[in-house]
Amino acid sequence: MGTSLVKFSRDTARDVKQVARGWRWGRRPQVPRSAEPYVIPMETSVFPTKWARTPAAIAVREVLQKGALNSVLRFEVNPQVSGLDSLLKLNGPALIVANHSSHLDTPLLLCTLPDGMRRKTAVAAAADYFFDTWWRATASAIVFNTFPIERRGGKLSATPGDLLADGWNVVVFPEGTRSPDGWMERFRMGAAYLAVEHGVPVIPVGIKGSFAAMPRGRGWPVPGRPSVAVRYGDPLSPAEGESAREFAPKISAAVSALLDEESTTWYEARRRVAAGASPSQSGPDAARWRRVWESTAPIKPAGSKRRAWK
Prior knowledge:
Elements: H1 2-22, H2 55-76, E1 78-82, E2 95-98, H3 105-112, H4 115-118, E3 121-126, H5 127-130, H6 134-144, E4 146-149, H7 159-165, E5 169-172, H8 190-198, E6 202-208, H9 210-213, E7 227-232, H10 244-263, H11 266-275, H12 288-295, E8 307-308
Parallel strand pairs: 1-7, 2-5, 2-6, 3-4, 3-5
Antiparallel strand pairs: 1-8, 6-7
């Protein structure tokens, strides 16, 4: 009798685990988008996030970011930050624009920014990913101060401009989604449009090593506390009369130059920039496994000019 009861319990536990793995926890469709018939999207309500920027929410977020998020990030990866002196050249709100290859990118930016700037920074997040369920939307809004943007049509909501006008810095990932292999994808026009439309500078940021630390598909960083480099660049401002289409390549080139600098040296990278010979950060024209292999190479050790992350 006892043996049968133990066997029944084990079988039940196995069945429960199997059902849990296949359970639809969110509202995301299980059919691939490529197999779905085209349907004109219905107007959906936008998840409100203004509450996440109230004094009470800011106080809660300060505890979460400086306490839990900072501690967990430091325990799992070894962030190395440089170029923070570039942020001293700002005099007002700015767009923080970075390449995007991992869910680690947002925590890395927020935990390496100076405290005063971090407290006044909001993050643009994909509405169809982070705001598809109320609990995910609430969690990301309170912890990361996110607000939804619509990426399927390449459109930004009105919120970024409102935030910039209110003195908030805004983090934007112009690629629209995480890189599938760690290399830079084409930058969209949203960040350049915001900079031109609202007359704010852009802070380019190169993030290297986050794909190797936590590639797409993983829910937690890989073991071994891998090093990740975050390099801030000098502010870029659109020239008088410059259009977003003209300004966008400059943002992409600035981020590429920072990644090149991280791979080589500041002097070599600046010489290539001056000569117009900065290497593309879109990766080698090779098979997928080779591109992933190249992008997961360990980053160079911290040099004397890189400020230790504390």
